[in-house]
Amino acid sequence: MAAMRCVSRLLTRRTINTISTRGYADEMSFTFAAGNQVFYDSQSVRQVDVPSFSGSFGILPKHVPTLAVLKPGVVTVFENDGAVKKIFVSSGTVTINEDSSVQVLAEEAAAVENLDASAAREVLSKAQSELASASTDQARAEATIAVEVGEALVKAVE
């Protein structure tokens, strides 16, 4: 029991020290890039919502440091001037640092407004056909990923 109190006091002190030294910012520096385009380059934004395999979550300036994997879906960026930008990502990572800077690195990304609904449905249909005809475990795994991306793409344009 005494050991538990000691650990509890230690954790409390560490938590207080971490919070007091972290230096939370009121703004969030945001970088978002993909292989084909840089969308934001260390720009200040209010909030970012990202799709991850642990569930979609919002990022505000005082967010706890985090590293997460992006799943196919839409990243929503709330800019300081009130504008809202929606960008589709196929996959990637999001890093939230102690200084409130955030980096999203996507394999592929495109502004939702530039996506074509019929092309998205065609991508999904092709992926579903590839999954149906896959004969190896590797082919099935690759086709399953393509179907997941295709479904998210269709959902993004609807």
From TrEMBL:
PANTHER family named among the record's database cross-references: ATP SYNTHASE DELTA/EPSILON CHAIN, ATP SYNTHASE SUBUNIT DELTA, MITOCHONDRIAL
Primary localisation category: mitochondrion
Subcellular location: Mitochondrion inner membrane
CC terms in the record's Gene Ontology section: mitochondrial inner membrane; proton-transporting ATP synthase complex
The species this protein was found in: Zophobas morio
InterPro entries found in the cross-reference section: ATP_F1_dsu/esu_C_sf, ATP_synth_F1_dsu/esu, ATP_synth_F1_dsu/esu_N, ATPD_C_metazoa, ATPsynth_dsu/esu_N
Protein name (record): ATP synthase F(1) complex subunit delta, mitochondrial
Gene Ontology molecular functions: proton-transporting ATP synthase activity, rotational mechanism
Function field: Subunit delta, of the mitochondrial membrane ATP synthase complex (F(1)F(0) ATP synthase or Complex V) that produces ATP from ADP in the presence of a proton gradient across the membrane which is generated by electron transport complexes of the respiratory chain. ATP synthase complex consist of a soluble F(1) head domain - the catalytic core - and a membrane F(1) domain - the membrane proton channel. These two domains are linked by a central stalk rotating inside the F(1) region and a stationary peripheral stalk.
Keywords associated with the record: Acetylation, ATP synthesis, CF(1), Hydrogen ion transport, Ion transport, Membrane, Mitochondrion, Mitochondrion inner membrane, Transit peptide, Transport
Domain of life of the source: Eukaryota
Family: Belongs to the ATPase epsilon chain family.
Ranges for domain F1F0-ATP synthase delta subunit C-terminal: 115-156
Keyword Acetylation among UniProt keywords: yes
A Pfam family recorded for this sequence: ATP-synt_DE_N
Cross-referenced NCBIfam families: ATP_synt_epsi (TIGR01216)
ATP synthase F1 complex delta/epsilon subunit N-terminal domain ranges (all copies): 31-109
Subunit details: Component of the ATP synthase complex composed at least of ATP5F1A/subunit alpha, ATP5F1B/subunit beta, ATP5MC1/subunit c (homooctomer), MT-ATP6/subunit a, MT-ATP8/subunit 8, ATP5ME/subunit e, ATP5MF/subunit f, ATP5MG/subunit g, ATP5MK/subunit k, ATP5MJ/subunit j, ATP5F1C/subunit gamma, ATP5F1D/subunit delta, ATP5F1E/subunit epsilon, ATP5PF/subunit F6, ATP5PB/subunit b, ATP5PD/subunit d, ATP5PO/subunit OSCP.
